[in-house]
Write a structure and sequence with these properties.
CATH class of one domain: Alpha Beta
Number of helices: 13
Bound molecules: nicotinamide-adenine-dinucleotide
Strand order of the largest sheet: 15-14-13-9-12-11-10-16
Number of strands: 16
Oligomer: single chain
Strand content: 15-25%
CATH topology of one domain: Dihydrodipicolinate Reductase, domain 2
Radius of gyration: 20 Å
Shape: globular
Distance between the termini: 45 Å
CATH superfamily of one domain: Dihydrodipicolinate Reductase, domain 2
CATH architecture of one domain: 2-Layer Sandwich
């Protein structure tokens, strides 16, 4: 474990300045930013966070190996100082403490505007552990029971991916706001329309916790797109490479033979999360995998592909290549890049603009860890909770979440048809 962790200790002094809240206003009206602006030097606490690992912070697979993406990077970054906008506490329920222990990974239990009222997991031992980690006494045997608690205003759904659609519908139907781990829907489009209907009619908040959205590179791309320094995006690329000779453990084995484009949001965010647009058509190719779980008869999806490469047409008329791969060892990660009419962003901006806007990310409340996946966890929680307190649309709202997720489901269909060009349903408010 030690060697792997240190391999990730590349210190990045990116020296780019952030202006996060404006990003949110890209999709909403008012934000903490217009309230007050202060800046300070924040160090994302590597040592601190990993101390938690010893107490089961930082998720590992069955063999206690750190799962890719949960490393916390030591990053010296100029961030805003977090400024409270209210002393209100949103009463939250948390569901799901599986192999990634995701329910406790986002710092809800540490956020000054949150009271974790109750938690749940189907496995009593996991449920008890989640309660302990979150410091709460109240537990429920299932999400279906937890949502009946009238004292809960919002629920974080960190359950198995195939259940996200139905679990979010259950939460919304009980009049509660919902935040959910990726993807928004899995394998079927029905739940997508049902979710749109319930969110439109109820006005409740829905946010998908796409970790790529607050990685410093994607955050900067979104800022630069908003300020026009990239111009219209002509071409984008995103990828999620995660080699698994054996699938990571999962509830009811949902990860066994998982169609790569059923898990498309980490990569798709590198276009849709930058422009706020969508994908309209796709031609996707897959390659039959040598790994045993990807023999069609060996998995519930009858899926032969462990690598799928999708070529999308975007709603802006641009081209976008999105790759997801489970069977190619070596270089790995969740990342992307964009090329626009005025500039490009790989790991930095290059282009026609001379005066760039402030690109570093916002700060976090004291005690809320930045977390894994490029220090994105705490920022996602703060964005969701702030959107409830400010009664505005969260950054990754349902339309964006579905445009990121459904496009992958259609891409897998195209791969099964050897790259046939297929139209993609569009979601908007
Ligand atoms: N970077 C990222 O965004 C990222 C990284 C890792 C995992 N994830 C997502 O996080 C989620 C959780 O991942 P995991 O590996 O822990 O999953 P998992 O399959 O190991 O665990 C899911 C947990 O949900 C619980 N659950 C299912 N239905 C329930 C119900 N009705 N009531 C209460 N509990 C219920 C199960 O008991 C189980 O413990 C997945 O959807 C995965 O896609 C996202």
């Amino acid at each position: 474990m030690k060697s792997k962790l240190f391999a990730n200790l590349g210190v990045e002094a990116n020296g780019i300045k952030a202006d996060i809240r404006n990003t949110t206003s890209h999709f909403s009206t008012s934000s903490r930013r217009s309230f007050l602006r202060l800046s300070g030097l924040g160090v994302v606490g590597f040592g601190l966070f990993h101390a938690g690992c010893a107490d089961r912070g930082g998720s590992t697979d069955g063999a206690d190996e750190l799962i890719q993406g949960f490393e916390t990077e030591a990053e010296v970054e100029k961030t805003e100082t977090w400024v409270p906008i209210s002393d209100r506490k949103v009463r939250v329920g948390i569901v799901g403490y599986g192999v990634c222990r995701f329910g406790a990974e986002f710092g809800f239990q540490n956020h000054p505007n949150v009271e974790v009222v109750a938690v749940s997991d189907l496995f009593p031992d996991r449920c008890a552990k989640l309660a302990e980690v979150c410091g709460v006494a109240k537990t429920y045997p299932s999400l279906e029971e937890l949502v009946k608690d009238d004292n809960i205003e919002a629920v974080f759904v960190a359950t198995d991916a195939p259940s996200h659609g139905k679990h979010c519908l259950e939460v919304l139907k009980h009049g509660k706001h919902v935040a959910v781990a990726v993807p928004a829907v899995f394998g079927s489009l029905e739940e997508a329309d049902q979710l749109m209907e319930v969110v439109k009619s109820s006005g409740l908040k829905y946010m998908m916790f796409e970790t790529s959205m607050f990685r410093s590179n994607l955050y900067a791309m979104r800022q630069l797109y908003r300020t026009g320094d990239l111009g219209e995006i002509v071409y984008s690329e995103g990828e999620y490479y995660h080699y698994m000779s054996e699938p990571i453990d999962s509830y009811q084995g949902w990860r066994i033979g998982l169609p790569p484009q059923f898990y498309p949001t980490h990569s798709n965010a590198y276009h849709i999360g930058v422009t706020g647009g969508s994908f309209t058509e796709v031609s996707c190719l897959g390659m039959k995998s040598a790994i045993k779980d990807f023999q069609p008869s060996a998995n519930n999806y009858k899926n032969p592909f462990a690598t799928e490469i999708a070529m999308f047409r975007t709603s802006e008329g641009a081209m976008s290549r999105m790759a997801v791969s489970w069977d190619t060892p070596g270089d790995h990660g969740e990342r992307g890049r964009v090329r626009g009419q005025k500039g490009s962003f790989y790991e930095k901006y290059e282009g026609l603009s001379k005066n760039l806007p402030d690109l570093s990310r916002p700060g976090l409340p004291e005690g809320v860890p930045a977390g894994g996946h490029g220090g994105s966890h705490g920022l996602l929680t703060d964005e969701f909770i702030t959107s409830i307190i400010q009664d505005r649309t969260p950054l990754v709202n349902l339309a964006m979440a579905l445009n990121m997720s459904v496009s992958g489901i259609v891409a897998h269909q195209s791969a099964l048809k050897d790259g046939e060009l297929l139209k993609i349903p569009q979601y908007s408010f």
